[in-house]
Design brief:
Layout: H1 2-19, H2 24-36, H3 39-58, H4 73-90, H5 106-131, H6 140-145, H7 147-164, H8 169-185, H9 188-195, H10 200-242, H11 248-277
Length: 287
């Protein structure tokens, strides 16, 4: 019964964000946008399933498991908090989850970095194009035109994916607590490059101005988004208790839907917050 309680708590927290959260309208607007434009959710869900299936097929080792349920609660809490914080940072950098190309190698990390950086730039251009009533196909060309920004992001993403395969304590500490802060700082960069139609250096200036204007709403957003992602992490951890190993495909599908839906929803919410906080919207109610 306990796994269902945790999954129920996760669903309840999502509902509270839509109803009683101070930024509830923002979350509802994001949900409405995803209802009209499901492509980002579907791409992320499919990429998560491909990643997991690829890892299972090639026998790549899974990430370090969470502390056992019987472990002291401080250990469980800090492990979940670290993963929730990492998930929050990757909201802004992981529109499409890259397959584990040559996992554990520098070339593989570079390929994964290019994949995730290009995917994130596409998502931001797609988001901006949809708000300007342009065809979704109009997102691909602007994304490719910002290749300098993609390359810079790819270098940073490559470091992230490379550290994911390291097990030493120092690298793990950097990846769990320091690298996410840097990624959060860069969160507005792809969106700024897409919205302001500028490349890397000018996008960095725009992103800095956005942070100056929207840091307080973003802090409020993070204070509830991170715990929600922590609950997601725990829900994914208890999912095998609900679905037996014989239903591996079903488990992968459910996990991918949960993860992709929450990540997509929170990203769109944050994107709307940044755009409105950066005063790019003439009409704040415009989704």
């Amino acid at each position: 019964m306990e796994p269902f309680l945790w999954l129920g708590a996760f669903a309840l927290c999502v509902a509270l964000h839509l109803v009683v959260h101070p930024q509830a309208r923002l979350f509802r607007d994001a949900l409405a946008w995803l209802g009209r434009h499901p492509a980002p959710f579907l791409w992320l869900m499919a990429s998560l399933m491909v990643h997991e299936a690829w890892s299972l097929r090639t026998g790549d080792p899974p990430p370090p498991v969470m502390a056992h349920a019987l472990s002291p609660w401080p250990d469980v809490f800090f492990d979940l908090a670290a993963r929730g914080w990492q998930r929050f940072a990757m909201l802004f950098h992981q529109a499409i989850y890259p397959p584990p190309f040559l996992a554990g190698t520098v070339p593989g990390a570079i390929l994964m970095g290019l994949f995730s950086a290009a995917g994130q730039m596409w998502l931001c251009c797609y988001f901006i194009a949809s708000r300007e009533s342009l065809l979704s196909d109009a997102a691909l060309r602007p994304a490719l035109a910002r290749w300098r920004t993609i390359l810079v992001l790819a270098v940073i993403h490559a470091a992230w994916w490379w550290m994911a395969e390291r097990t030493d304590a120092t690298t793990r500490t950097v990846r769990e607590w320091l690298m996410p802060q840097f990624l959060v700082f860069l969160a507005p960069l792809p969106l700024a490059a897409a919205a302001a139609r500028v490349d890397f250096l000018k996008a960095g200036a725009v992103a800095t101005r956005w942070w100056g204007r929207a840091w307080l709403p973003m802090l409020m957003f993070a204070l509830t988004a991170v715990p929600l992602l922590v609950l997601l992490e725990f829900a994914l951890h208890v999912l095998p208790s609900v679905l037996p190993p014989a239903r591996m495909v079903t488990r992968l599908l459910v996990a991918s839907i949960l993860e992709a839906s929450l990540h997509s929803w929170l990203f769109v919410s944050a994107a709307l917050l940044l755009l409105r906080g950066g005063y790019l919207d003439k009409e704040p109610s415009h989704v």
